[in-house]
Design brief:
By secondary structure, the chain is of the alpha+beta class. It is built from 4 helices and 7 strands, in the order αβββαββαββα.
Length: 108
């Protein structure tokens, strides 16, 4: 297959960039804001262990099906800097309905 048969499609190119903010329960959230994690769907044992924990939104990401996910790092994780550096094991992904915004004075 040559370039003309493939056209201009690039499987690694993002057509829709993830938003820089999202709204959860009427509150606008962005990277750096704190949320409480409340796993709801298909929760495994790790998700259950994280329930109720405070996390910092590291990034807002959008998958290939246009679903928005929040990449978070736990506030109490002693290896939190590894999550900020996007290292495995210190970054967790949750959908918008699995987080609760913290009160405004505790959000950032």
């Amino acid at each position: 297959m040559n370039r003309t048969e493939l056209g201009a499609w690039n499987p690694f190119e993002e057509e829709n960039a993830a938003p820089s903010t999202v709204e959860v329960a009427g509150v606008t959230l962005r990277a750096g804001d704190r949320v409480r994690v409340q796993p709801r769907r298909r929760a495994d044992i790790l998700d259950l262990a994280l329930a109720g924990k405070i996390a910092i939104i590291e990034a807002i990401e959008q998958d290939l099906e246009d679903q928005i996910q929040l990449a978070v790092v736990l506030d109490e994780d002693p290896g939190r800097e590894f999550g900020v550096l996007r290292q495995p094991g210190h970054r967790f992904f949750f959908s918008l309905d699995e987080v609760e915004p913290m009160p405004a004075e505790e959000r950032t």
